Amino acid sequence: MNKPKLKVVILVYTEADFYYLIPSPHFKKLDLAKWYLNGLRGRIYRYPNPSRKGFINLTESFKKHNQKALFCLVGHLFLKECKGFPHFNESKPEHSWYNNKIGKDWYSWDKGGNFKTRPGLYLGDLVEKEKNNPLFEFGLHAFSHEALTLESRKVVDSIISSGVKAAKSVGITIKSFAAPFELTEDISDPDNIYSSLRKNKIKRVFYAGQDDSLIIKRHLSVSKPIKDNGLEKIRISNSFEGTSSKKKIVDVMKDIQKNKDKDALYCLITHDFTHKNNKNAEKILGFLKREGFS
User: Fold this and answer.
1) Parent domain of 78
2) Does the global pTM surpass 0.85?
């Protein structure tokens, strides 16, 4: 079998319990209701925490299949403990969307704690165990899952630099970045986030194109990474979750096969907290190994 030209990278948006705390600014009323119910389930199954289990399940599967992966963590998750806001020099987000959605201050959830008392908000102990594994790289996913394109450059700088400092607290140097909600580039100020990444010596960013505030204009793509003013920009190609249907998993595998002869990079994303079991991860990783993509 000829080895495919296409290169596949797996990117894990590592959010743990931040999914239950920060809804998407794109959510409508029905989406918010579903998010709230998911949050109730997350609180019922408090410990052993299902979000930590998702992270552990994925690392186990990647090791089993000898598959490299990039985990882009919400910066707060690099911590093993904290006393609550402020943690470093991060500013509170200034845009009103969060308060408008759920009627709370941004940091109302953060009363402090550690990986034993609030295990879904602190993964620093797990990162320390895995940081020397050559299969894994750990990147950044903002600090507390902020919608960065809605914020000023000053706020964005404070959030990204705080995430970098949180990672350093467990011995991680950040080289890669993926924005929450895939809000990476806005037509009003396309360089907002990129300028902060350069300032913090982050070399690689994953993105899906431009948006117009909360109007989604981005699209997925299978393409080569591009170099742009000191940054390597990698387009997101597709996604799967631990909760995805059998049809979705089959469709992802078909799409990768369809593009196998492209001289390009296929960026496949997933979220840690959806992987309460390894079933879908095992299917995807087994496929990649069989077909020579891994």
Assistant:
1) 7-290
2) yes
